[in-house]
Design a protein that fits this description.
By secondary structure, the protein is an alpha/beta fold. The chain has a domain at 9-197 and 232-258 and 316-330: NAD(P)-binding Rossmann-like Domain (Rossmann fold, 3-Layer(aba) Sandwich). It has helices at 17-28, 43-54, 74-77, 97-118, 140-143, 164-181, 208-218, 235-247, 264-275, 288-298, 304-310, 320-326, 333-346, and strands at 9-12, 33-37, 60-64, 82-85, 124-128, 187-193, 195-197, 229-234, 253-257, 260-263. It has a seven-stranded parallel sheet, sandwiched between helices. Helix 4 (97-118) links the parallel strand 4 and strand 5. 50% of the residues are buried. GO terms for molecular function: oxidoreductase activity, acting on the CH-OH group of donors, NAD or NADP as acceptor. This is Nucleoside-diphosphate-sugar epimerase. Keywords: Oxidoreductase. InterPro entries: Epimerase_deHydtase (IPR001509), NAD(P)-bd_dom_sf (IPR036291), NAD(P)_dehydrat-like (IPR050425).
């Protein structure tokens, strides 16, 4: 599927952590971006995008949209051959998962993709999915073929009551494929990233990775870090993967975007050389038995079930499709962690100890 770079591209949630880097790439390539946002009048939330556009050959236009409102993407999508749907809530601690996660993820996907079918110019839709639609806990890797997550694997163990974010991403992606299979106008490419780290382009970022980095900086993990098995990808590599998914004619299906199979302790150790003398970066692992006792008391998200299924368990995914078919190249873990931590410092989100 060839996409004409002279045509505008719509990006939902354009001011988000990942989407901002994607918008930067598109603008740098001279492409006109139709930024679908909740409220274009809140200039402070989009100033960083205006600054990017001012120094790039591409242009940006803002459109008021709402994930829950049918038809709200019609104007923003007009004339676009390529649509990026990145907007979906990423909140791990929620009071009402149905309202805060499921509804916007599922209905947002329906509204964007159904509008694509009503917009004659659209040829390709790239959806930002997640590895969370492939697995719930690191222990799920053990039941995957050869102990490794692939694009063929689907999340079957999350629910509204356990890991509802993973459940929302699973439902939303399945709905995306259902809608795509019901038409023949445009093709669907899904990007499935693991945990996203790296510097943000806006100080307004609400990335969950920031909360983890803060714990490395403020001493919360100075006694040790839990060896929670996760995948990690640099936000800049993820933005490049999105761009390639849109403009690589042969791009198809699901695509695991993950640079490293790692864990919290390994991530902390990657910061030791540069920041270990100034910040209480963890150097050792917290015992699993201790976490089973204190985890649920310190953090509600650290339930005994979560600890049992993720601590001291290797997370492993196959990223070969992204490298072979999309041409994605991944930064070293140390670079991603150091750049992430430096952003934390420069943005004033932590103070030197």
């Amino acid at each position: 599927m060839e996409i004409d770079k002279s045509k505008p591209v719509m990006v939902t949630g354009a001011n988000g952590y990942v989407a901002s880097w994607l918008v930067k790439k598109l603008l740098d390539e001279g492409i006109t971006v139709h930024a679908a946002v909740r409220n274009p009048n809140k200039k402070d939330k989009y100033q960083h995008l205006d600054n990017l556009a001012a120094n790039a050959p591409g242009r940006i236009k803002y459109f008021k949209t709402d994930l829950l409102e049918e038809g709200s993407y019609a104007e923003a999508m007009e004339g676009c051959e390529l649509v990026y749907h990145t907007a979906s809530p990423y909140i791990l601690n929620v009071k009402n998962p149905q309202k805060e996660l499921i509804d916007p993820a599922l209905k947002g996907t329906q509204n964007v993709l159904n509008q694509a079918s009503k917009t004659p110019s659209v040829k390709r839709v790239v959806v930002t999915g997640s590895c969370a639609a492939i697995y719930t806990d690191a222990i799920d890797c053990k039941s995957a073929p050869n102990g490794t997550l692939t694009e063929e694997v689907w999340n079957t163990s999350s629910s509204l009551d356990y890991q509802p974010y993973s459940y929302s991403k699973t439902l939303a992606e399945k709905e995306a494929w259902k809608i795509a299979d019901g038409q023949n106008q445009w093709d669907l490419v899904v990007i499935n990233p693991s945990g996203v780290f790296g510097p943000a382009l806006s100080m307004n970022t609400d990335s969950e990775s920031i909360s983890i980095l803060k714990q490395f900086a403020d001493g919360a993990l100075k006694m040790g870090a839990p060896k929670v098995g996760i995948g990690l990808v640099d936000v800049r590599d993820l933005a490049e993967a999105h761009y390639l998914a849109g403009y690589t004619p042969a791009a198809n299906g699901r695509n695991i975007i993950s640079g490293h199979n790692t864990n919290f302790l390994e991530m902390g150790l990657a910061l030791q050389e540069r920041y270990g003398s100034s910040y209480p970066i963890p150097k050792s692992a917290l015992p699993k038995w201790l976490l089973m006792i204190i985890g649920p008391i310190v953090n509600k998200a650290l339930s005994r079930r979560f600890i049992k299924n993720n601590v001291n368990i290797e997370w492993k995914a196959d990223n070969s499709k992204s490298k072979k078919e999309l041409g994605v190249k991944y930064r070293p873990l140390e670079q991603t962690m150091e750049d992430s931590f430096q952003f934390l410092i420069e943005s004033g989100l932590t103070s030197k100890k």
